[in-house]
């Protein structure tokens, strides 16, 4: 493993319970740069941390993983994601404290205006981490979530301070290789306000890579190393020479049998305009969201009896209403039902 001095590498999601296995794996990765940025998909928790009420699993990391990441030069951690508040504000603050104690860097929390400007050779690179809101704003005021006016204004201001602007966005639907029109409109706006590179997490699946003018968009970096998943993803690399910045994309694949990484270069699709981004066929997610909404059929005529509704179902409904990607799929599902009933 050799880290290249003029490369900045951006990886997808990481979730690790067995640190020893991870260290064996990362030692075979040839995509590490001088600076390495990764989506840290769970908080580091303390003995007093308690899980919050939410749907889905509660993920957590140990500080042993942080120490391992630092040894291998992965020192810039994106914390703005849907699992960082799984153990509430305490989990967020403890994670930040441990990162600081080890002399590492975090993005996307603590100060909503917080960003990172790194200098490689003669280039100032701004890295801005933000996420689509699921549980973050309910359990922490410190996690940066996307808000149209605030986010775009912050990016316009950051653009003035740097030579190259990278946005790392955690959002969208899971387990798809294309996203909704609304998702595409949001990441397109990031380009419109001056971003040179837009990288998206959360899908757990390799998305598409596009070049639009001088900017690049990767709609899904997938999983770099996520226990229990297939661990195929995209790695974006900036290659800096003097004041020039080149961009390369690689498919990163971890073989669970050999315990090693391999890499292959990825095709970049050229588009004339952002409106040409590939769009999800929403019918592919219809059955999933139909099953979600069917859980609320018992509400008919019983809205006043909310105390009888299982709290898990209330949490599910809240998340569908709160998260724009889930909400868009729910609206699509309801529209499909309306169309079927009106025949």
Q: Structural class of the helices, strands and pairings?
A: alpha/beta
Helix count equals 9
- Estimated helix fraction: 25-40%
Distance from first to last alpha carbon: 62 Å
- Architecture (CATH level 2) name of the largest domain: 4-Layer Sandwich
Molecular shape: globular
> Can you tell me the residue ranges where pLDDT is under 50 for at least 5 consecutive residues?
none
The helix/strand order is: EHEHEHEEEHHEHEEEEEEEEHHH
Number of strands: 15
Q: How much beta, percentage-wise?
A: 25-35%
Average pLDDT: 90
What is the CATH T-level topology of the largest domain? Purple Acid Phosphatase, chain A, domain 2
> For the CA atoms, what is the radius of gyration?
20 Å
Number of domains: 2
Largest sheet, if any? Answer: 8 strands, mixed
What is the CATH top level name of the largest domain? Alpha Beta
Task: Give a verbal description of the structure.
With 343 residues, the chain is an alpha/beta fold. The chain has two domains: 4-276, Purple Acid Phosphatase, chain A, domain 2 (4-Layer Sandwich), CATH 3.60.21; 282-341, no CATH class. The chain has helices spanning 19-26, 63-71, 88-101, 136-139, 148-159, 181-192, 286-294, 311-322, 324-341, and strands spanning 4-15, 33-40, 76-78, 105-107, 116-120, 123-131, 164-170, 197-201, 209-212, 215-218, 223-226, 232-241, 244-255, 260-265, 269-271. The strands form two sheets. Strands 1, 2, 3, 4, 11, 12, 13 and 14 form an eight-stranded mixed sheet that branches. It has a seven-stranded mixed sheet with strand order 5-6-7-8-10-9-15, covered by helices on one side. Helix 7 crosses helix 9 (324-341) and helix 8 crosses helix 9 (324-341). The longest helix is centred in the last third of the chain and has 18 residues, at 324-341. The chain is globular. The relative contact order is 0.14.
């Amino acid at each position: 493993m050799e880290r290249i001095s003029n490369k900045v590498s951006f990886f997808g999601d990481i979730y690790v319970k067995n640190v020893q296995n991870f260290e064996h794996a990362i030692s075979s990765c040839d995509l590490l740069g001088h600076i390495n940025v990764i989506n840290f998909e769970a908080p580091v928790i303390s003995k007093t941390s308690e899980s919050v009420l939410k749907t889905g699993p509660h993920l957590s990391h140990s500080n042993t993983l942080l120490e391992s990441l630092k040894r291998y030069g992965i020192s810039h951690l994106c914390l703005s994601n849907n699992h960082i508040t799984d153990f509430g504000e305490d989990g967020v603050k403890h994670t930040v404290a441990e990162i600081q104690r080890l002399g590492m860097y975090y993005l996307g929390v603590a100060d909503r205006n917080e960003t990172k400007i790194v200098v490689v050779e003669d280039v100032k690179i701004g890295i801005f981490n933000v996420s689509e809101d699921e549980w973050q704003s309910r359990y922490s005021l410190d996690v940066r979530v996307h808000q149209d006016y605030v986010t775009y204004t912050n990016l316009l201001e950051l653009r003035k301070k740097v030579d190259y602007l990278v946005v790392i966005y955690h959002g969208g639907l899971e387990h798809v290789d294309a996203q909704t029109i609304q998702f595409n409109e949001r990441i397109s706006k990031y380009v419109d306000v001056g971003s040179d590179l837009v990288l998206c997490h959360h899908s757990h699946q390799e998305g598409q890579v596009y070049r639009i003018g001088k900017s690049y968009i990767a709609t899904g970096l997938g999983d770099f190393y996520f226990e229990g998943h297939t661990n195929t993803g995209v790695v974006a690399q900036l290659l800096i020479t003097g004041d020039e910045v080149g961009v390369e994309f690689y498919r990163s694949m971890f073989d669970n049998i050999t315990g090693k990484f391999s890499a292959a270069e990825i095709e970049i699709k050229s588009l004339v305009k952002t409106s040409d981004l590939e769009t999800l066929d929403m019918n592919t997610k219809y059955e999933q969201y139909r099953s979600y909404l069917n859980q609320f059929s018992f509400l008919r005529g019983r809205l006043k009896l909310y105390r009888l509704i299982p709290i898990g179902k209330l949490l599910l409904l809240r998340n569908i209403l709160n998260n724009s990607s889930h909400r868009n799929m729910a609206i699509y599902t309801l529209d499909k039902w309306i169309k079927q009933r009106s025949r």
